[in-house]
Design a protein that fits this description.
Elements lengths: L2 H34 L15 H17 L8 H9 L1 H4 L7 H9 L5 H33 L8 H32 L17 H7 L2 H12 L9 H19 L3 H21 L7 H23 L3 H11 L11 H20 L3 H11 L3 H24 L12
Helix pairs in contact: 1-2, 6-7, 6-14, 6-16, 7-12, 7-14, 9-10, 10-11, 11-12, 12-13
Length: 402
């Protein structure tokens, strides 16, 4: 394309990023400027539109793909508006590429079978969110507000594990609901999660966690910068930029930046020092898998803390810096007595064990299982989830803020 098209692309990117900056990062930038340059600029306190990062990235991907010639220009403004503002995934993703639904916008079929599949997927996501994520959030809120210097390390570990599960079921549950609703309306969205907590490496974790975001940064930032087919120093710079932006994308806070750069450090170590994919030693691969899971867990502590200082102190307290005695006391027993079923279920369903069980049952051709047991189970779970909403259980949506 000519220079005119490139100029339009640049203007559109600046416009979209500018809107995102004003609403999401302006106050943070003012805060940083006041702190480091001793200025006294007044904060604007602009209300953040929910899901702004998601629909901004969708708009950007459309413009870039049109410029690259990967998709055709959508000349019907209503169809384009449908893509940008389609309500099932508008608020909290997944980030849907225009190329994925270009044909579906003008030519799709709504069938009874698709409605049934979509409804089941929606109920699954709704139940994950309300039954697991919401109940685990109560534990997280209580433990993360404790004085870590006087709290039993086992309690802090419970808090960190519960948050790792909470954010997974919060976001994957919403993604399931969005995919299910899309299916009901005849749209097929790509998967956004694939059992990330069974990952054997940090690289694999990010291929399984928030897949649409990882692919977006890969295709629109990492690869245009040169990807990995460059010098080592340039590759490190490319990775640094991607993970800095990944942290910033999640929010205007030092904790998100630290969280993103933490993954940059981990991936540099993994790709240039450990190289687990090339290790033939089983023990080394197992150790690195455990290390990956622990690193992700500690990363979520920083992610969920109100400051980097608090996050670091929390991590240190988990390792026994302040209270060395990690005993099963009354608090530990209470959390397991009141929330143990949600913790155990959360850990169990974060693995593909139920998928394997279902596959084995199907292989045995147990007809009554699909015809009777599954619908009844979905109905019971749905009613159980609704009961929590009626009772007014704590109901935060983490990714609404992003």
């Amino acid at each position: 394309m000519g220079g005119g098209a490139k100029s339009i692309l640049v203007v559109d990117i600046v416009f979209n990023i500018g809107i995102l900056f004003v609403f999401k990062y302006l106050d943070f930038s003012i805060l940083v400027a006041n702190r480091f340059f001793n200025t006294d600029i007044q904060m604007k306190n602009i209300v953040l539109p929910i899901g702004i990062s998601f629909f901004t990235f969708q708009a950007l991907s459309y413009v870039v793909d049109v410029y690259r010639g990967n998709v055709n220009v959508q000349k019907n403004p209503l169809f384009l508006a449908l893509y940008i503002s389609f309500f099932p995934q508008l608020i909290a993703g997944p980030i849907v590429r225009y190329s994925c639904i270009e044909r579906q916008i003008v030519d799709r079929r709504c069938t009874l079978e698709g409605f049934a599949v979509g409804a089941k997927r929606f109920l699954l996501g709704f139940s994950k969110k309300v039954i697991l994520s919401n109940n685990l959030s109560v534990v997280v809120l209580e433990i993360f507000n404790k004085d870590v210097s006087t709290t039993n390390p086992l309690v802090l570990w419970i808090g960190s594990i519960c948050y790792s599960l909470q954010i997974f079921y919060d976001f994957s549950g919403y993604s399931d609901m969005a995919i299910g609703l899309g299916k009901i309306f005849g749209f097929d969205f790509e998967e956004n999660f694939n059992y990330p907590y069974i990952s054997k490496s940090v690289t694999e974790f990010w291929r399984r966690w928030h897949i649409s975001l990882g692919q977006w940064f890969r295709d629109y930032v990492y690869m245009p910068l040169g990807g990995s087919k460059v010098s080592i120093s340039r590759h490190l710079l490319n990775m640094f930029i991607v993970w800095l932006l990944t942290g910033i994308w999640h929010g205007a806070s030092y904790t998100f930046i630290a969280w993103g750069l933490g993954y940059f450090i981990l991936l540099v170590i993994e790709k240039y020092i450990v190289k687990p994919d090339k290790r033939k030693n089983l023990l080394t691969r197992v150790v690195w898998q455990i290390f990956t899971l622990l690193s992700v867990n500690f990363g979520w502590v920083i992610f969920n803390s109100n400051s980097i200082r608090h996050g670091i102190h929390y991590c240190q307290a988990m390792m026994g810096r302040y209270v060395v005695s990690a005993t099963i006391d009354g608090n530990v027993i209470r959390y397991f007595r009141e929330y143990g079923v949600f913790i155990i279920a959360g850990i169990l369903f974060s693995t593909p064990i139920m998928k394997l069980v279902k596959g084995k049952i199907k292989n045995k051709k147990v007809i009554w299982f699909e015809a009777v047991i599954v619908p009844v189970a979905y109905g019971i779970i749905f009613l159980w989830a609704v009961s929590f909403l009626i009772l007014g259980v704590h109901n935060p949506f983490i990714y609404f803020d992003f």
